[in-house]
Amino acid sequence: MTDRKTFEKSVEELDEIVSKMESGDLSLDESLKLFEKGVKLTRSCQKTLAEAEAKIEKLMANSSQQN
Fold this sequence. Notes:
- This protein is mainly alpha-helical.
- The protein is built from two helices and no strands.
- Helix 1 packs antiparallel against helix 2.
- It is rod-shaped.
- It starts with 6 loop residues before the first helix and ends with a helix.
């Protein structure tokens, strides 16, 4: 089983990718590869955030029903 990256590690990696791409020192091929990796990381982070939001909404709804 593949270990899933933590949200924090993914964000850290995204920051590194942005810095590298902003430097302007990469070839087009390297930039495209990093961009593709960045898109995948972004989608993963968005999914993680959506899951966390859904969990919070569920907890809040349950909390409201108990009061």
